[in-house]
From TrEMBL:
Its cofactor is pyridoxal 5'-phosphate. Its EC number is 2.6.1.52. It catalyses: O-phospho-L-serine + 2-oxoglutarate = 3-phosphooxypyruvate + L-glutamate; 4-(phosphooxy)-L-threonine + 2-oxoglutarate = (R)-3-hydroxy-2-oxo-4-phosphooxybutanoate + L-glutamate. The keyword Transferase applies. The gene is serC. Residues 144-330 form the Aminotransferase class V domain. Residues 1-24 are annotated as: Disordered. This is phosphoserine transaminase. SUPFAM superfamilies: PLP-dependent transferases (SSF53383). Residues 1-14 have a biased composition (Basic and acidic residues). Catalyzes the reversible conversion of 3-phosphohydroxypyruvate to phosphoserine and of 3-hydroxy-2-oxo-4-phosphonooxybutanoate to phosphohydroxythreonine. It comes from Paractinoplanes aksuensis. Pfam families: Aminotran_5.
């Protein structure tokens, strides 16, 4: 059944629609190849590499219009490592979470498992819906996901009204950052990883931190709490200020992310990126709403993500469509496994051409009629 051949005339130019790792621009890879002999395989403690870390940090600050006093901090391990870093280095005692998917749940688990922290409050919502934070006395750290990659639900980044003085807000922007709008003054830590909208490879975590968050990290460290060296946020802050990481980073990841940020900044920065993702979102949700067999999984249009679209199928086997697409070089449209729905998931990051999203819908229609 999967040997159906999609005509080349309707196929997207680039067949990568994965939500992470996501499409890497060929132009970025070519730039990397051009510098490879003087950059790859050279010391990360020397100027050549430090200059790229500096370019990456500058690029992020410009792209997100970083307010005065905020700092870009980075280290190895991706977002999953950052959850542990934040558990050891940012939560003072009591956290509150908005959990509405698999990624949010992982941070909750890290905090629940930490013997030195109090039991957190968790506001939950089922897949396809959103949960929200609410002021609660005694909570020193609030945490939410901007875009839940496992379900395609996105929420605005907003401070918790009525929260205790000095309480921090941590925003997981791993997949939302770079596709969805944000005013960084509305959060204390906006953290992401380079393999999503930043169109690079995985392995790093990147955090834009407010002065209050930086102060919290130093305060907790000074309190004498045991913090594993590799997860020490103060070390990450100090190393980042020196344009380096605590241990060896993937140099190509650093370079590709810096290159992508320069490209996005030249296109018009965050405003441009948000508009482009919104354009792709209008294409795919518009198609699904008109389709006789596809519907947006997220029923509330306000919560529908412009970073990652999830589309339910009825009467058509989504897994068979994903397999046939893959056989035709159009990859990674499979849904988040644990969600267990008859669904496709499509990344709408700014790297993806809106015209390719339109072409993808034509390919899905082509297969749905024939499978
Ligand atoms: C991909 C993703 C993560 C995990 O990122 P890693 O770098 O693989 O650890 C966390 N949160 C969200 C919202 C994500 O989309």
């Amino acid at each position: 059944m999967t040997d159906l051949r999609i005509p080349d005339s309707i196929k997207p130019v680039d067949g990568r629609f994965g939500s992470g790792p996501s499409k890497v621009r060929p132009e970025g890879v070519e730039s990397l190849a051009a510098v490879s002999r003087t950059f790859l395989g050279t010391s990360h403690r020397q100027k050549t590499v430090k200059d790229q870390v500096a370019r990456l940090r500058r690029g992020l600050a410009e792209f997100f219009a970083m307010p005065d006093g905020y700092e870009v901090v980075l280290a190895n391990g991706g977002t999953s490592a950052f959850w542990e870093v934040a558990t050891f280095g940012l939560v003072r005692e009591r956290a509150q979470f908005a959990e509405f998917g698999e990624f949010g749940a992982k941070f909750v688990k890290a905090v629940k498992d930490a013997p030195f922290l109090a039991e957190p409050t968790v506001h939950q919502a089922p897949g396809g819906q959103a949960a929200f934070l609410a002021a609660e006395a005694g909570v020193d750290t609030y945490a939410s996901v901007q875009n839940e990659t496992s379900t395609g639900v996105a929420v605005p980044v907003r401070r918790v009204a009525g929260a205790d003085q000095g309480a921090l807000l941590l925003t997981d922007a791993t997949s939302g950052g770079g596709s969805l709008d944000v005013d960084l003054r509305e959060t204390d830590v906006y953290y992401l990883a380079p393999q999503k909208a930043l169109g690079s490879d995985g392995g790093l975590w990147l955090a834009l931190m407010s002065p209050a968050a930086i102060e919290r990290a130093f305060e907790i460290k000074a309190s004498g709490r045991y913090i594993p060296q590799f997860l020490d946020l103060v070390t990450a802050i100090e190393q980042s200020r020196l344009e380096q990481t605590y241990n060896t980073p993937a140099l190509s990841t650093v370079f590709l992310a810096a290159e992508q940020l320069d490209w996005m900044n030249a296109q018009g920065g965050l405003a441009w990126a948000v508009k482009r993702s919104a354009e792709s979102a209008a294409v795919i949700y518009g198609w699904a709403e008109k389709s006789s067999y596809a519907t947006p999984f997220v029923t509330d249009p306000q919560l529908r993500s412009a970073a990652v679209a999830t589309i339910d199928f009825e009467g058509v086997d989504a897994a068979a469509i994903a397999r046939a697409l893959r056989a035709n070089g159009i990859v990674d449209t499979e849904p988040y496994r644990k969600l267990g729905r008859n669904q496709l998931r499509v990344a709408l990051y700014p790297t993806v051409e809106p015209s390719d999203v339109a072409a993808l819908t034509a390919c899905i229609d082509y297969l749905a009629e024939r499978l």
